[in-house]
């Protein structure tokens, strides 16, 4: 493929940071960031599964890492990223049908994404901790 | 050939290659992931704090292992497509872009193989 060679310093259009952050824009950026986090976070699932397949010692070791406060924080962050990316994805599926594209609807869907993602992540952990008898 | 437009030189070079397939696969796996990841969250929540024997026995069940394998397949296709878009957006040098795309594919396939191997071993192994 031919590569554009920039020999002249041409003016560029203003980029992201010059604009006032709007909720829709922030959710779009978060959708991409949570996607990246989930991409690398698959290592957590792979580590858990392969440890279970290797034996009890390895499994307990990985579980201990996840049970550490830092491990728990990472897992909670992963839960939130998953919830956010999933809800953002559903928002995009709605938009794909041509619906929900009025400004007020876009804003409402964006706010719903952030609020519901936090609520969902907390709810999942509350239920999980209840199963462990820690809540 | 003064009458020749530049069209001939750009045919097949633009974005009009596999964009629609990319879009469709991203949606297809995205919808599948809604269900498969809901299953994973349910699984992990019910297994929270469970001992090794319980986890091992649970993961070996076909009704658990099969959705897990589907999730790995769907999830990794989805994330590889997503990372491809990110790389194409931000890495402009052709060489570095190709290397980044290759590394991203290697990563997705490696993680996928580890997960699939683990689930199959738990299912079929002792």
Notes on the protein architecture:
- The complex is a heterodimer of chains A (135) and B (126).
- In chain A, 75% of the residues lie in helices and 0% in strands.
- With 135 residues, chain A is mostly helical.
- Chain A has one domain: 3 helical TM bundles of succinate and fumarate reductases (Up-down Bundle).
- Chain B is an all-alpha fold and 126 residues long.
- The mean pLDDT of chain B is 91.
- In chain B, helix 2 (19-46) crosses helix 4 and helix 3 (52-60) packs across helix 5 (94-124).
- At the A-B interface, helix 1, helix 2, helix 3 and helix 4 of A face helix 2, helix 3, helix 4 and helix 5 of B.
Briefly say what this structure is:
The complex is a heterodimer of chains A (135) and B (126). Chain A has helices at 23-54, 56-67, 69-96, 103-131.
Contiguous runs where pLDDT drops below 50 for at least 5 residues of chain B: none
Average pLDDT taken over every residue of chain A = 91
Largest sheet properties of chain A: none
What amount of the residues of chain A lies in strands?
under 5%
Shape of chain B: elongated
Q: How many domains, in number, for the residues of chain A?
A: 1
**CATH homologous superfamily title of chain B:** Fumarate reductase/succinate dehydrogenase, transmembrane subunit
What's the assembly state of these chains? heterodimer
How many β-strands of chain A, per DSSP? 0
Architecture (CATH level 2) name of chain B: Up-down Bundle
Strand content of chain B: under 5%
Count, helices of chain B: 5
Our Rg estimate of chain B from Cα atoms comes to: 21 Å
Tell me, what is the CATH class of chain A? Mainly Alpha
So what's the overall shape of chain A?
A: extended
SS-derived structural category of chain B: mainly alpha
């Amino acid at each position: 493929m031919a590569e554009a060679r920039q020999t002249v310093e041409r003016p560029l259009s203003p980029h992201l940071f010059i604009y006032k952050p709007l909720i829709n824009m922030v959710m779009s950026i978060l959708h991409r960031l949570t996607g990246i986090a989930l991409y690398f976070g698959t290592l957590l699932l792979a580590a858990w599964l392969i440890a279970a397949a290797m034996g009890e010692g390895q499994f307990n070791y990985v579980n201990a890492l996840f049970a550490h406060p830092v491990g728990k924080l990472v897992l909670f962050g992963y839960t939130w990223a998953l919830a956010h990316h999933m809800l953002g994805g559903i928002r995009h599926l709605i938009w794909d049908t041509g619906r929900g594209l009025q400004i007020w609807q876009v804003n409402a869907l964006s706010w719903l994404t952030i609020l519901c993602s936090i609520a969902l992540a907390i709810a999942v952990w509350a239920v999980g901790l209840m199963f462990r008898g820690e809540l | 050939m003064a009458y020749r437009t530049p069209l001939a030189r750009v045919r097949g070079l633009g974005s009009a290659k596999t964009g629609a397939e990319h879009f469709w696969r991203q949606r297809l796996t995205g919808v599948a992931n809604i269900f498969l990841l809901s299953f994973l969250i349910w699984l992990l929540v019910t297994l929270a704090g469970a001992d090794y024997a319980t986890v091992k026995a649970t993961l070996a069940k076909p009704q658990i292992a099969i959705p897990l394998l589907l999730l790995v397949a769907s999830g990794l296709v989805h994330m590889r497509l997503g990372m491809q878009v990110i790389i194409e957006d931000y890495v402009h040098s052709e060489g570095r872009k190709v290397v980044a795309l290759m590394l991203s594919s290697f990563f997705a396939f490696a993680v996928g193989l580890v997960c699939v191997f683990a689930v199959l071993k738990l299912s079929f192994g002792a």
